[in-house]
Amino acid sequence: MRVGVVQQANTGNDAENKARLKKHIAICANQGAQLVVLQELHNSLYFCQTEDVSFFNKAEKIPGLSTEFYGKIAAQHSIVLVTSLFEKRAPGLYHNTSVVFDTDGSLAGIYRKMHIPDDPGFYEKFYFTPGDLGFEPVQTSLGKIGVLICWDQWYPEAARLMALKGADILVYPTAIGWDMNDTAEEQQRQRNAWITIQRSHAVANGLPVVSVNRCGFEEDPSKQTSGIQFWGSSFVAGPQGEILHQCSVDTEEQVVVDIDFVRSENVRQIWPFFRDRRIDDYHDIIKRYID
Question: Residue 287 catalytic?
Fold first, then answer.
């Protein structure tokens, strides 16, 4: 499979962001991409830096205007396209939702973000209800896409459940960056941890991982913090965690990376982690804490 990664820096003009995404998706498709992955909440700036009810106006129905827009792009280029939208499910009920389109532009499936952060600069619990669809891969004409979103990437349980349900690949639309008040050393520790945990999901499950982050600086609208410098670094890893491509920390990129699924099967044969799992003794994993 040829996978396209779109790492983009956004502005406050949502229409402009979408127009540039359309252009960047086309660049990937023209390079032979079969699957293209966009970053988290790609239509706009990352509005969760502050709690402001006016931002609920950005939410939209699924299906709706954005799904129509991206569905047409997927059909035009005959690609599977992974998007990330602010879903208005019902009055007062909103989700952080990934929508996957198949090569004919049809809606193949959705995933609603399960783990919702609530930290300075990342006030997502104010906006998003935790997902209720579970960890279910989306079946597409290219295979099963295990879509997880940003904060989900820190949880090995999420990746494992996607793998156990037959995901062929793990995909993480992301919006993560540096607190400008942290030291340079702390900033690098955080970025390296982010890369390492996702590479570990590839290793533990014998699956390729695609993680797509935004780049650029975005101000905090409330002025309560120094804003976020999104650290880019979007990457594709193979089933042993090997880096197949990693983007820069601060530059927009559209890249296409080849993934060999035969290699995934071969890796699972030589490292049969699924065979040796002690499923008879994992019952405590569902507890909040083990006293």
Answer: no
